[in-house]
Design brief:
By secondary structure, the protein is α+β, with helices and mostly antiparallel strands. The chain is built from 9 helices and 22 strands. The protein has helices spanning 8-20, 82-99, 107-113, 124-139, 149-155, 167-174, 206-220, 314-327, 329-338; strands at residues 32-36, 39-43, 47-51, 56-65, 68-76, 120-121, 182-185, 190-193, 226-230, 233-237, 246-251, 260-266, 270-275, 280-283, 286-289, 292-293, 298-299, 304-311, 343-348, 352-355, 363-365, 371-372. The protein is globular. It binds flavin-adenine dinucleotide and magnesium ion. Flavin-adenine dinucleotide (FAD) is lined by residues 3, 66-67, 96, 99-100, 102, 143-146, 148, 152, 158, 201-204, 206-207, 274, 278-279, 290-292, 294, 318, 321-322, 326.
């Protein structure tokens, strides 16, 4: 499968970043092939700025990995050395090579090729990710399902062959999707897909999981204040060095140029959004986006434009943003309210915005064409 390597996604991320950046005069950096770890990675050099507000030095590097634009911003008393970024981008590279469905030698590709044939030995990370996927499948009654791969391939959204499939083709691929047919043996460290044609796709959770591992590494290396942005999955390390909250822009799902519609104040939290704006194609009057309901075999249309989840870990935020999008406003809102330390902002097609109770004044609406409503209105 050939992905369209447009920089539209990258641009939207840059806009989000500038919204959460303390220094407004950022220009788009040049990404160049750089050896970091085993592989050549498309990556920038360091940009170093003095932050007047926190009196710290911010060192920023960017890369293009896991099919998206990545920005790492670390605050310290002095410039952060290049080898710290080598380690960060090298770690992302290791995970990408394990979990990407588009890398033929990855563990996930190996599991998929051996579907219906035999169990495959995998790393702890892949066991963790598939187990997390199973938990969210149970929580959503199978709407979230990491065996969604055959339907993702059929629709091809984000590739050069995206098209509306025939009903027959859709039904055939739907029959291959069933998270209950994944056999995980944690002690043997193997995963087996019980039927031929099944395919795992970790696209809905892997970015969050990798962001959490990058945060662990940054803390281990002795840095307490940073922003990790993996294609819009934003994970903050600590508070800002002056103890202020970080301010992260929430993307306006209707803006093609990546404008924001609100601001979230975060401290040591993750914010992850899922929506109709990230990957899609238009056919007739319909915009077909990439979050697929396994029970209909088609992108989920429920009046939601986007949902942003605030949580402690990014993997939970990532899994929940996709899950809650699939559940729709009422059920998704109720699920978020039932979970501790998880909050959400829902943006609907009719310009209404719903904010869960724990966010309070941590969400500020900045785009006045939207109206905050309550589910009891
Ligand atoms: P999310 O809402 O978090 O996830 C949507 C994605 O989840 C869909 O794209 C699909 O993959 C999957 N999904 C859809 N429906 C369901 C469902 N019902 N249940 C569970 N999952 C579902 N993109 C490229 O263009 N080129 C690449 O080479 C590439 N490599 C990647 C490698 C890795 C390791 C990862 C994690 C991602 C990669 N991507 C790549 C991006 C990937 O294809 C997805 O588009 C992306 O992860 C979607 O993230 P999101 O936050 O936009 O949406
Ligand atoms: Mg997700």
């Amino acid at each position: 499968m050939k992905y369209l390597k447009t920089f539209a996604v990258s641009l939207s991320v840059m806009m989000l970043l500038s919204a959460c950046s303390p220094s407004p005069s950022e220009s788009e950096p040049m990404l160049e092939p750089t050896v970091g770890g085993e592989n050549t990675i498309l990556r920038s050099t360091s940009k170093v700025t003095n932050d007047a507000q926190t009196k710290k030095i911010i060192t920023t590097q960017e890369s293009f990995q896991i099919g998206t634009h990545i920005t790492i911003k670390v605050y310290d008393d002095k410039e952060v050395p290049n080898d710290v970024f080598d380690q960060i981008f090298g770690l992302i590279d290791i995970y990408e090579n394990r979990v990407s469905k588009t890398i033929s030698t990855s563990e996930v590709s190996n599991i998929n090729e051996n579907a219906g044939v035999e169990p495959v030995a995998v790393s702890d990370a892949v066991i963790d990710l598939v187990e997390i996927g199973q938990n969210y499948a149970a929580l959503t009654d199978g709407l979230f399902d990491v065996t969604i791969g055959p339907l993702v391939d059929l629709w091809g959204i984000g590739t050069d062959h995206a098209a509306v499939p025939s009903d027959d083709a859709r039904l055939t691929e739907m029959s291959k999707i069933d998270y209950q047919k994944i056999e995980i043996k944690p002690l043997d460290k193997t995963i087996f897909l019980k039927e031929t044609g099944m395919e795992i796709d970790l696209g809905a959770i892997a970015k969050g999981y990798i962001a959490d591992r990058v945060k662990d590494l940054i803390l281990e290396l002795g840095y307490d204040h940073a922003i990790i942005n993996l294609g819009g999955n934003v994970l903050t390390v600590g508070t800002k060095p002056n103890s202020d909250a970080w301010q992260v822009g929430v993307r306006d799902p209707q803006s093609s140029s990546g404008n924001t519609m609100g601001i979230l104040k975060l401290e040591d939290n993750s914010i992850v959004s899922s929506g109709i704006y990230e990957r899609f194609f238009n056919a007739g009057d319909t915009r077909y986006h990439h979050i697929i309901n396994p029970k209909t075999g088609s992108p989920e249309f429920n009046g939601m434009y986007s949902v942003s989840i605030v949580s402690d870990t990014s993997v939970d935020g990532d899994a929940l943003s996709t899950s809650v999008f699939l559940l729709g406003l009422e059920k998704g809102f109720a699920l978020v309210e039932s979970l501790s330390n998880v909050e959400a902002v829902f943006v609907m097609e009719d310009q209404s915005v719903y904010v869960t109770s724990g966010l309070g004044d941590r969400f500020i609406l900045t785009e006045k064409s939207y109206v905050i409503k309550s589910l009891t209105d």
